[in-house]
Write a sequence for this structure.
């Protein structure tokens, strides 16, 4: 047997405390100072515009305080700061987070315009759509299964399908579902969306849906069934629109050409609306990021711009019309909104100028480049009606004074709000 007091084998990775200290001194002696100013970190979408100031500050007057509380500086005489000051700091930070959480959603800024304006036949607000990522995914799955069931790839393809046989539908309804039901190729009954024929199609649809997706509960099943019927309503609207375009002695080629022209006009209007929504979302990101990043007077200004933007909503953004320049580039000329106060255009321009379109290395960001929007000396007038329920000083004074008593009542202007004078 070996000696009980024999020394244990030496760990080759254990250099000992003394060697560790020597190595640490050697490493510290050879450290090269890092110039943090030379490191380029990724930037957000803000910071490209000039510094904004309040006109009151430029004249030496007192400036208003920010709506978000400022943080007190800890007592330098105490090692960790006073406990009361630390608690106050934590409370202020919690307030900031709570206010910003109301404006931020995962991945992007999402705004909800408070539509509390009176009903009006002449001045209408744009429609609101409530959606979530989960609902979007469910809608996509419903669309895919329905496309497979009907043998289409998009809504317009339903126009090339024959209508369901009326005699078969009536026989099926007369037998209360006991007769011959829908068979492939499946065709919906557009004359009675909630009839027995489409209910049989719904059962076939749910059978195919459950083969690929899991339905969690009865509420989700009801929601999917409603999506199915809503899609049938949209398809029926397409078919009826085509039938209304048919003229006496019209050939199929003439009908298709007439429908294509109308469809192109609708798409042009949809693209215009999409551009306004995109402009609103981009401006919202810019204002909210500046509210988070700025301090003092700059923070007050961006809170003010953010409030104006949220009040206007997507419907308050200017429309534009596209044209090709001599070099082939597409530019968008902004249309004039005669009902909107001209001073608000300058505030929207302040937001747009702060958009940063380059990366940390001054390269163009990936994705589609920003649209080149230009102002003309005599811009075209937008054909959209004014938005109701905005603050009184958001409307052009000359335009508002020309309204009749009925129009003034329908526009339902809210009390005027304070508009800060901003210098750039």
């Amino acid at each position: 047997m070996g000696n009980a007091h024999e020394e244990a084998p030496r760990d080759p990775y254990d250099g000992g405390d003394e060697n560790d200290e020597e190595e640490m001194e050697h490493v510290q002696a050879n450290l090269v100072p890092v110039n943090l100013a030379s490191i380029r970190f990724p930037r957000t979408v803000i910071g490209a515009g000039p510094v904004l100031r309040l006109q009151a500050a430029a004249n030496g007057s007192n400036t208003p305080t920010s709506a978000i509380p400022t943080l007190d500086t800890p007592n330098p005489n105490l090692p960790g700061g006073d406990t009361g000051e630390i608690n106050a700091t934590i409370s202020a930070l919690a307030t900031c987070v709570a206010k910003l959480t109301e404006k931020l959603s995962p991945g992007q800024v999402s705004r909800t315009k408070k539509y509390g304006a009176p009903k009006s036949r002449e001045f209408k607000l744009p429609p609101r759509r409530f959606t979530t990522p989960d609902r979007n995914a469910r809608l996509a799955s419903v669309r895919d299964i329905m496309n497979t069931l009907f043998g289409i790839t998009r809504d317009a393809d339903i126009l090339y399908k024959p209508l369901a046989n009326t005699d078969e539908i009536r026989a099926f309804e007369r037998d209360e579902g006991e007769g011959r039901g829908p068979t492939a190729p499946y065709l919906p009954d557009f004359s009675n969306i909630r009839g027995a024929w489409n209910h049989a199609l719904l059962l076939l649809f749910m059978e195919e849906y459950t083969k690929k997706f899991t339905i969690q509960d009865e509420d989700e099943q009801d929601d999917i069934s409603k999506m199915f019927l809503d899609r049938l309503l949209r398809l029926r609207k397409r078919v009826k629109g085509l039938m209304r375009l048919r003229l006496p002695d019209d050939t199929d080629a003439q009908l298709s050409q007439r429908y294509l022209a109308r469809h192109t006009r609708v798409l042009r209007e949809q693209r215009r609306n999409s551009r306004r929504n995109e402009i609103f979302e981009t401006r919202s990101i810019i204002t909210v990021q500046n509210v988070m990043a700025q301090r003092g007077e700059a923070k007050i200004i961006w809170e003010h711009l953010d409030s104006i933007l949220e009040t206007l909503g997507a419907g308050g953004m200017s429309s534009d019309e596209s044209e090709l320049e001599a070099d082939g580039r597409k530019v968008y000329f902004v249309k004039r909104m005669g009902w909107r106060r001209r001073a608000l255009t300058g505030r929207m321009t302040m937001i747009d100028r702060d958009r940063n379109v380059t990366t940390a290395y001054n390269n163009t960001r990936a994705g589609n480049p920003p649209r080149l929007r230009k102002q003309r000396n005599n811009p075209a007038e937008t054909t959209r009606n004014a938005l109701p329920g905005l603050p009184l000083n958001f409307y052009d004074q000359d335009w508002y004074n020309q309204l009749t008593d009925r129009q003034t009542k329908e526009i339902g202007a809210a009390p005027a709000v304070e508009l800060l004078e901003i210098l750039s």
